[in-house]
Design goal:
The protein is 74% helix and 0% strand. It has four helices and no strands. The radius of gyration is 13 Å and the shape is globular.
Length: 92
């Protein structure tokens, strides 16, 4: 596990950018920058290692409005992570 890569990925996959038709261009640009800095296998490994945490966070449920918002945010981050993994793997 490479904490530097992990931190960069977590920082990249934020919900302040929203893509209604695929991945937001800001995330794709960030992934391209990571590809220039790290190998595909390093990125795939880190993305895969984040999946359990992101999936677990997306399953948290609550009854308040804030809990619903948090669930939506974590669900979107999970989608972005899964799409990032597909994007990086497309270069193999």
């Amino acid at each position: 596990m490479n904490n530097a890569i992990r931190k960069k990925i977590d920082k990249l996959l934020v919900v302040r950018v929203w893509g209604y038709h695929g991945m937001p261009s800001e995330i794709i640009s960030g992934l391209d920058a990571l590809l220039a800095e790290y190998s595909i296998s390093e990125l795939v490994s880190e993305l895969e290692s984040l999946l359990p945490d992101y999936r677990s966070a997306a399953k948290v449920k609550g009854s308040s409005g804030m809990a619903a918002e948090l669930q939506m945010i974590t669900g979107v981050r999970l989608i972005y992570l899964e799409e990032s993994l597909k994007y990086i793997r497309s270069f193999l």
